[in-house]
Design brief:
The protein has a single domain, classed as MetI-like fold. Helix 11 runs antiparallel to helix 14. The chain starts with 11 loop residues before the first helix and ends with a helix. The radius of gyration is 22 Å and the shape is globular. The protein is mostly helical. 82% of the residues lie in helices and 0% in strands.
């Protein structure tokens, strides 16, 4: 390929590879520990879910959906029909593996994202640094996250969860930052006038008022974590994504459709329930 750029080409690829090799060598023990402990936690959580009889699990989720949706029958009916379909197609074990990865990845992303969002809302310098990083994380193709995940953790469920956390983190950070910044200045001044400390103002005024916006970000984080299911299967993550990947590799249209529809069912259930929780908080 002819180089049309008059100046020497920067060896960006070599720099990134050198940085990755350095991290792998220096923090190899930490990555191995995370791989072992992460596999144990995710597998243990998945096995715990599988202990629950599927019929009982579906019934409990339907009851929760009934109360979350303010005693409307639409969502609980969809839960019964949708999850019943997954059970009927023999995908229940794969569904529980997917749910485990999504829940744990989302929790990690939320635990990291909310404090980072608060920091960005409170400190303009931090905000100026964090925003470009979030832009990079959101615009980077999802497949690229698989490369460092494999380099750090190898093949398996942990690199899939790692990629999901990185991919799903930005919405929680952005919405937390936005929610706190949108709070009326008069309310903040009123809290200051009553002698509130910074912690009191944050936990008793700002976070409660920004709760709806933060919950919207959490909803998006969970959905993005779920969207990494199929991509994560390429590096050994279990679940419904593996069924889709197998169907693609073997050109089995029916199998792919069945597994894909199961992912759609799970996505709708999670999305609607988190939306109803957010609407209840208003």
């Amino acid at each position: 390929m002819t180089n049309l750029w008059p100046l020497p080409v920067l060896p960006v690829a070599r720099w990134v590879e050198a940085a990755t090799d350095w991290l792998t060598n220096v923090l190899g023990g930490l990555f191995d520990s995370l791989q072992t402990s992460g596999s144990w936690v995710i597998s243990g959580f998945s096995n715990l879910l599988l202990v629950i009889p599927p019929a009982l699990f579906i019934l409990v989720i339907a009851v929760i959906a009934y109360f979350v949706s303010k005693k409307r029958l639409g969502l609980p009916t969809f839960v019964l029909v949708g999850l019943g379909y997954v059970l009927n197609q023999g995908l229940w074990d794969s569904l529980m593996s997917t749910v485990s990865i999504v829940i744990i990845s989302s929790i990690i992303a939320i635990v990291i994202g909310v404090p980072v969002g608060i920091l960005a809302a409170k400190n303009e310098i931090a905000n100026a640094i964090i925003k470009p990083i979030l832009d990079l994380m959101q615009t980077m193709p999802a497949f690229v996250y698989l490369i460092p995940a494999v380099a750090f953790f190898g093949i398996g469920v942990v690199p899939g969860a790692f990629a999901s956390v990185i991919f799903a983190l930005p919405p929680t950070v952005r919405f937390t930052n936005l929610g706190i910044r949108q709070i009326s200045g008069e309310l903040v001044e009123a809290a200051d006038s009553f002698g509130s400390t910074g912690a009191q103002k944050l936990f008793k005024v700002e976070l409660p008022l920004a709760k709806n916006t933060i919950m919207a970000g959490i909803n998006q984080t969970v959905m993005l974590a779920l969207s990494m299911v199929v991509i994560g299967s390429m590096i050994g993550a279990p679940g419904l994504g593996r069924q889709v990947l197998y169907a693609v590799q073997s050109a089995e249209v029916g199998t792919g459709f069945v597994a894909g529809l199961a992912i759609v069912v799970l996505a709708i259930v999670i999305d609607r329930m988190t939306q109803w929780v957010n609407s209840d908080s208003k």
